[in-house]
Amino acid sequence: MSTTIKSDRRQFLLAAGMTIAASQLGLPGVARASFFSEGNLPSLDGATTWLNSSPLTKENLRGKVTLIDFWTYTCINWRRTLPYIRAWHEKYGEHGLKVIGVHTPEFGFESDSANVRRAVSEMKVGYPVAIDSNYALWRAFENQYWPALYLADAQGHIRYHKFGEGDYEQSERAIQDLLRRAGVEGIDSRLVSLDPTGAEVAADWPDLKSGENYVGYERTETFASRGGFVFDKNHNYVAPERLQRNEWALAGNWTAQRQAVELNSAGGRMAYQFHARDLHLVMGPAGLERPVRFRALIDGQAPGASHGSDVNEQGNGVVTEPRMYQLIRQSKPIVDRRFEIEFLDPGLKAFSFTFG
Predict the structure, then answer these.
(1) Sheet holding 97-103, edge to edge
(2) N or C: which end of the chain has fewer CB within 10 A?
(3) What's the rounded Cα separation, in Å, for the pair 90 and 85?
(4) CATH 3.40.30.10 domain extents, the chain
(5) Phi-psi category of residue 124: left, alpha or beta, with phi > 0 → left and psi -120 to 50 → alpha
(6) DSSP helix/strand/coil, 198
(7) Three-class secondary structure assignment of 90-144
């Protein structure tokens, strides 16, 4: 099965604000929220370990309204839903809502429980998290998306789901309705009020014309370095002087791998012609003990006020751990711009560009 998102499918995902599992890329169909009964809540026994809680079972959840949130910590679509999941946990937890995050990895490093534990701490995820590194819960729910939200009533029947971003009012009203049906009284019917910051800020959808793009050769699109990829071998790449919108390129000595590209020598660069307010790059050191310094540029200049949360005004930053790094956040007007990042040290792995 092909794992490349076709252009029309990419536009759908961009508009819907969702990330789809690699095993389902390219499949047709539109994911929509539903209020119908959708079967019983599956067992949670397949989790490899739990964070913020001892292992939970269906028996532990009997009589509670349960929210299951599938996520993976580098997913920008999930990051923008997190403020709502966090707020619902805080507001409705005392009324009987049980929030459970199910962390199912997309990239290999997200299978490392230490990386997930660090992300849980840094992102202030205070509710129970089931680590699903073997995809057991993913398969039990027949899930296909990050993020994916499922709501089960007090009898353990799934009554609502939402795939991707958005519809927060509808989701919160569903929580309130299921709690009232469970006999809970005194629920404040006002919706949560949020002021997200950093990567949790909602995407600038009207100006978003660049979609997620993996950089490993298995799933990438629009790679523009002269001669294309050389698979699984050290190779000196050259970036063209000009890129078309959403084309990207490498310069310097890199090894193209299925999931990632790995930098072999200091001074390697990545370039991307993008159209979005925000630009992020999922990356990490090839060796965990070795940070990698970098400098980011936009249209050949230091980003200044357009720098993201992981760089300063001069564009300087350091890759210290495998995660998503916010490199650019610019003000209007949003136009096509050329982003470049130069790595001052070798031993860097990059996985995907995302935008907002």
Answers:
(1) 49-51, 129-131, 97-103, 65-71, 148-152, 158-163
(2) N
(3) 9
(4) 7-200
(5) left
(6) helix
(7) HHHHHHCEEEEEEECCCCHHHHCHHHHHHHHHHCCCCCCEEECCCCHHHHHCCCC
Gap between the Cα atoms of 312 and 332, Å rounded: 19
Give CA–CA dist 42/58, Å, rounded.
8
Strand partners, 157: 40
Residue 198 tokens, joined: 């950093």
Place of tokens 């159209």: 275
User: How large is the greatest C-alpha to C-alpha distance in the chain, in angstroms?
Assistant: 66
Q: Which two tokens stand for residue 82?
A: 């997190």
Residues of the chain with CATH 2.60.120.260: 205-355
The phi and psi torsions of 115 (rounded to 5 degrees) equal -65, -40
**Residue position matching structure tokens 């930098």:** 263
pLDDT tens for each residue of 62-117: 999 999 999 999 999 999 999 999 999 999 999 999 999 999 999 999 999 999 99
Residue 355: its H or E element? strand 348-355
* Pairing label, strands 19-20, 213-214: unpaired
Rounded Cα gap, residues 352 and 220, in angstroms: 9
Rounded CA-CA distance 248/225 in Å is 8
What CATH number is given for 205-355 in this structure? Answer: 2.60.120.260
Which CATH topology does 7-200 take? Glutaredoxin (3.40.30)
Angle between helices 82-92 and 168-181 (to 10 degrees): 20
Question: What pTM value is reported for the model?
Answer: 0.89
What does the DSSP 8-state code read for residue 8?
Answer: H
> For residues 146 and 120, what is the distance between their CA atoms, to the nearest angstrom?
16
Report the C-alpha gap between 327 and 228 in whole angstroms.
26
What is the chain's Cα-based Rg? 21
d(CA 341, CA 356): 18
pLDDT in tens, 235-254: 999 999 999 999 999 999 99
State how far the Cα of 108 lies from the Cα of 102, in Å rounded to an integer: 16
The DSSP 8-state label assigned to residue 356 in this structure reads -
Distance, in Å, from the CA atom of 130 to the CA atom of 100, rounded to the nearest integer, reads: 7
